Amino acid sequence: MLTDPTPTESGALPAAGLHRTRLAASWASPRFRLVLLGGVVLALTCGYLFTDVPGSLAFALRIRSLTVVAMLVVATAVGVSTVVFHTITQNRILTPSIMGFDAFYVLISTLIVFTSGSAAFLAFDEFTLWLVQVVVMVAFSVLLFTWLFGGKRRSIHLMLLVGIVLGTFFRSFTEWMQRMLDPLDFQVLSDAMFASLTRPDETLLALTAGLVVLGCAAVVPLLRTLDVLTLGEPAAVGLGVDHKRVVMTLFVGVSVMIAASTALVGPILFFGLIVANLAYSYAGSFRHAWTLPAAVLIGMICLLGGQLVLERLFGFGGTLSTVIDFAGGLFFLYLVLRKGAR
Amino acid sequence: MIALENVTKRYGGQPVVDDVSITFGGEGVTALIGPNGAGKSTLFGLVGRLLSPDAGRVTVDGMDVASTPSSELAKVLAVLRQDNHVAARLTVHDLVEFGRFPHSRGRLTVHDREHIESAIGYLELGPYRDRFLDELSGGQRQRAFVAMVLAQDTEYVLLDEPLNNLDLRHMTEIMRLVRRMADELGKRVVIVLHDINFAASYADRIVAMRDGVVVADAPAREVMRPDVLAAVYDTPVDVREIDGKPVALYYG
User: Touching check for B25 and chain A: CB below 8 Å?
Assistant: First the structure.
């Protein structure tokens, strides 16, 4: 007989089932946790919109609500793309930036400044610049992907490795060009290297939001399939997942989202790692229907909180990435150490 | 039945499965044995559509594995691989639920839940259903994965070395279970085994592979002969009869 040290009671089944339903209804349920996150986001949004208004409230609201929308777009792109990327690669310490998205963005900007000077860079039509960057980033990642994953080889790890090598190459090449720039040009360029969410161009913001929604539209129908992918490729294939087609769809969706948001506000993937891992430990479920929105909302909290600290505490004396990385990194470290101690 | 017709799979020019034609997966338990590198797991990979053959055709109940939608095959064929590492924290119940994915695409019906419950019950995992997989012993975890495969409710069940890293008691448990699945539930189980004595006492038929070729395919008793086993493993194997059962001795 199959026996185990723990006694098997006939009443164990319904009791366990009851326990499950009670758990689902309690404060620990994924739904409640998500609502709580939503509440925090709402409170921070109000705090950001309505406090410390220097002049006309209507004017401040118009400017600030644009920033909030930009944050939502960025948080969605970063949260969704990082979690999906983790699931595809079966690795939770990577971010999609490993594919060289950020590096490519910096390279393109540097190339423009390097070849035609900072004046030309500043005079460059915003829409053209955005479009060029989106197209180049998506084309690059999709090319890399189809080359190393779409063919007979089908190796995600090879693709990541090539991505790292190319990303490093872009970064070195960028650095080399930056070293040759005159200090004024460099100053202008470094401003563009840090993500800035304030005063986004309205048209570009709308376009980016559209692309992010499009990316989400590719991901959302695959939520349950993503859950199965957490078991790894062999098990997922055994359960009837068309692995190649699903991963292709997800990857293209993710690329479009990241490319559009990076082109809008600058390198943004830096906090994806923190956001995704916080979402895993907070969401209370491994299911993507819960972890994805949790990641987006935690991303919103990071951005809103970071922006508040940056504006109200430091009077813009820094960059958003510094604030988020510092606070988020500390918090993340705390989480890891607490888990390790348990 | 699962049929391979002149199937070849090469890794870097080296054939790992070499022009194999075989039909297996009849009623009961079929054990697939052979030394390391004989091509057993590759064969499973080809049948389980994780690998595509360089030549030949694989069919399951007449459905070509290469052209039939993966989701259709998942309703007749379940595969449990050797290494089952899961990055996310799943409970036993979550894992078994995945077995219903081919049927429900993730939206569980009452019927799906019945299958999940009976699979959990069949493997006596009731007390552990809300435990996380990383909180289970190796034997319990292996049973959870078998429960997932069982919940998939397929006619064919392919198990790739399910006894790896298990102690004596858990190995016997899994093998008894495999036997019961075949006898009581009518599953056609194909199982890769390293311990030929387990194959001899639990399988109806033994398929032996060596160097990418099938070298024996017969009722268990006929394969359990010193000359056959020595040829398969390239090592002297003595076979004695104990209580009417053939037992291989290869410890000397």
Answer: no
| C-beta atoms of B90 and A16 within 8 A | no
Residue A19: inside a domain: no
pLDDT tens digits for A163-174? 888 888 988 999
Asked if the Cβ–Cβ distance from A16 to B130 is below 8 Å, we say yes
Contact A264, A75 (CB under 8 A): no
CA-to-CA separations, A273 to A80, A98, A191, A324, A325, in angstroms, rounded: 11, 12, 24, 12, 10
Domains defined along chain B, listed by start: 2-76+154-249 (3.40.50.300), 89-153 (no CATH)
Domain that holds residue A144: 60-341
Mean pLDDT, rounded, of chain B: 88
Q: Per the domain annotation, does A15 fall within a domain? A: no
Output the domain CATH number for residue A90. Answer: 1.10.3470.10
Question: Which range is least confidently modeled, A141-145, A162-166, A196-200, B29-33?
Answer: A196-200
In chain A, the N- to C-terminal Cα span, in Å, equals 35
Q: What separation, in Å, do the N-terminal and C-terminal C-alpha atoms of chain B show?
A: 39
| Residues of B with Cβ-Cβ distance to A9 under 8 angstroms | 127
pLDDT digits (tens, 9 = 90+) for A212-227: 999 999 999 999 999 9
User: Would you give the DSSP letter of residue B80?
Assistant: E
> Which two tokens mark B117?
């419950």
Alpha helix locations (H) across chain A?
A: 12-25, 30-50, 57-89, 101-123, 126-145, 156-180, 183-193, 202-219, 223-229, 233-238, 243-265, 272-283, 288-308, 320-341
Provide the pLDDT for residue A9: 38
ipTM of predicted complex: 0.84
